[in-house]
Design goal:
Blueprint lengths: L5 H18 L3 H15 L5 H6 L14 H10 L3 H9 L15 H11 L4 H9 L10 H17 L4 E2 H16 L4 E7 H4 L4 E2 L1 E8 L2 H8 L4 E6 L3 E6 L3 E8 L4 H9 L2 H10 L9 H8 L31 E5 L10 H10 L4 E7 L11 H14 L7 E9 L10 H4 L4 E5 L8 H12 L6 E2 L17 H11 L2 E5 L9 H9 L4 E4 L10 H11 L13 H15 L1
Parallel strand pairs: 4-7, 8-9, 9-10, 10-11, 11-12, 12-13, 13-14
Antiparallel strand pairs: 1-3, 2-4, 5-6, 6-7
């Protein structure tokens, strides 16, 4: 009788993949196990049935070398192949991945050379100067690793939202397949769409928590009870997962209590006319006499005090987008592929905006490159009609605040996304003046990723937000909400002040591939957390309104 399922098998295959990446000079082995893990997760049948029917090897991504390992894992719950790999390395070696800049290859080198397998051992080696002597490291890398160790310790169990969403959905699917589970909901910071999360929380409706724990303890490591109604485990060797149990008649209250911050939950309970039993959260709001507050808006209790709550913007409100790169600069898909992807998303318009020439490291376009790019757009735009294609550029704001390209070249574009890509170490006043000068340039249409931050990697530069917001509103420059999950810049915490100054926003994907066109969705989460409606967002406007806005700016500024 099988003692595992497809989820535990996939997790084991992922672990094998990581071990191979640590030590194997041939990357295809690691990739093969990773592909097999995704293939197992994607099965729409029970893995035991697939094996019994002889269909395992008919599954794309599973070959003759990995198949027997899958069978062992399924039938025995273990595999000598994986056990041997685990015995080769210290149990905490994967915690080194929390150090910025350290990937599995470098961790493998550190282990094979010095036997390093933990943060403490890494710190000791760095302080003794041993890392600087390693080929591919050096003194600067050693210093960065020392700095990164401190960040790794303070950033334990911090992950970008997409990672939290992926893990939460996999676990939700696993829970939903358990007979004892009546309902399950992703809650906590993931449901609030916080850009960086510490853990994954799920509310579980069941009358038999013990049965659920019995199943999930085979799927999650280090399982332990926390209080009367919570059980915690670890996914992927590093992500804390908390399951919150409630009887079906109280499930709505559990979802509410585990979604909002303590401030929100306390204020809700104080404002409620009564706290009735409710199977769903919507039912609880209704019975309590409180208008529903969207999960993204539950960082504070502010919305509970509002008599009118306008409808928040949603991805379906977006009629087009801008800030899209192609292979003409550092994009991974051609003009035609990106245009087709935009059309297939149902957009009425899209703005192509490759890098300007100052961004040479990103394949920035020379003036001749601009001519070639625009010729290719002309060649293909008819094939995606009636979608409108706007010509743009993500042009660098140079250190003195002037714009890349000369004025004549910039005026050839329908729009300009002005962005800082250099000299991040300017002080607050210098960076503010640099951006203000760019906002004064009449060819600038959008201000891109306002602070230049990269979440969990690089803090943004500091600026005087109020001066920038005021100037952008005065000049009619639209401020970008960059939907790239590594940026999500402008931060939702600053957007309220921008609204007060009269700023218009655009939700842009900063897409460098077809897949990244979906970053408009994560950008929308930022807008929703800030309380924005469709009227605040430039790219909810019709193609005629957008074209008129661009044309008016060009006419006025000539």
């Amino acid at each position: 009788m099988a003692v595992a399922d497809k989820w535990t098998v996939a997790r084991a295959l992922d672990e094998i993949s990581r071990y191979h990446e640590l030590s194997d000079p041939q990357p295809f082995r690691a990739r093969a196990f990773e592909r097999a893990a995704r293939a197992v997760e994607g099965l729409d049948r029970d893995l035991g049935e697939v094996i019994a029917s002889g269909d395992l090897y008919k599954t794309s991504g599973i070959g003759k070398a990995i198949g027997p390992i899958i069978v062992e894992l399924m039938e025995n719950g273990s595999s000598p192949y994986l056990d041997d790999l685990r015995a080769t390395y210290p149990p905490g070696i994967f915690e080194l991945l929390r150090v910025p800049g350290l990937g599995l290859k470098k961790i493998g080198v550190l282990h094979s050379t010095f036997g390093i397998g933990s943060l403490d051992e890494l710190e000791e080696a760095a302080k003794e100067g041993r890392l600087a002597k390693l080929r591919g490291f050096g003194a600067k890398t050693q210093a960065k690793i020392l700095e990164g160790i401190e960040k790794a310790r303070t950033r334990e169990s911090k992950f970008l939202l997409p990672t939290g969403l992926e893990v939460a959905e996999l676990i939700r699917e696993r829970l939903a397949a358990i007979d004892a589970v009546e309902d399950v909901e992703v809650v906590g910071s993931v449901r609030r769409r916080l850009e960086v999360v510490r853990n994954v929380n799920l509310a579980v409706s069941t009358t038999d928590p013990a049965a659920v724990i019995s199943v999930m303890s085979r799927f999650l490591d280090q399982g332990a009870g926390v209080g009367e109604d919570t059980w915690t485990g670890v996914a992927r060797n590093e992500i804390a997962v908390l399951l919150h149990f409630a009887e079906p008649k109280q499930f709505g209250h559990m979802v509410l209590r585990t979604t909002g911050t303590p401030d929100f939950v306390t204020a809700f309970e104080e404002a409620a006319a009564r706290m009735p039993a409710a199977k769903t959260e919507e039912e609880l709001f209704e019975k309590a006499g409180i208008a529903f507050v969207e999960p993204e808006r539950r960082e504070s209790a502010a919305d509970l005090k509002k008599k009118r709550r306008p409808k928040l913007v949603s991805p379906s409100d977006l009629r087009g987008t801008f800030h899209v790169h192609t292979t003409f600069s550092d994009g991974r898909n051609t003009v035609l592929q990106m245009l087709t992807a935009a059309r297939d998303r149902g957009f009425d318009y899209v703005g192509i905006s490759d890098h300007s020439k100052a961004a040479y490291y990103a394949g920035g376009l020379t003036e001749d490159g601009v001519r070639q790019q625009q010729a290719e757009i002309r060649e293909h735009e008819g094939s995606v009609a009636p979608m409108r294609v706007f010509r743009g550029s993500e042009a660098d704001i140079l250190p003195d605040g002037s714009m890349d390209y000369d004025r004549k070249t910039r005026e050839k574009f329908d729009f300009i996304v002005a962005s800082v890509h250099s000299r991040f170490n300017m002080n607050r006043e210098e960076m503010t003046e640099r951006i203000l000068r760019a906002l004064d340039d009449p060819t600038v249409t959008f201000l891109g990723h306002v602070t230049g931050r990269k979440l969990l990697v690089r803090d943004g530069y500091t600026v005087d937000f109020d001066r920038i917001f005021e100037r952008a509103a005065e000049r009619g420059v639209i401020i970008e909400i960059n939907g790239n999950p590594y940026r999500l810049d402008l931060d939702w915490r600053h957007i309220g002040r921008a609204v007060e100054h009269g700023v218009i926003f655009s939700i842009n994907p900063d897409a460098h591939s077809i897949a990244e066109m979906s970053h408009t969705i994560s950008g929308t989460w930022v807008a929703r957390k800030a309380g924005l409606t469709a009227k605040h967002i430039f790219n909810t406007r019709s193609v005629e309104e957008v074209a008129a806005y661009f044309a008016k700016r060009k006419a006025v500024n000539r």
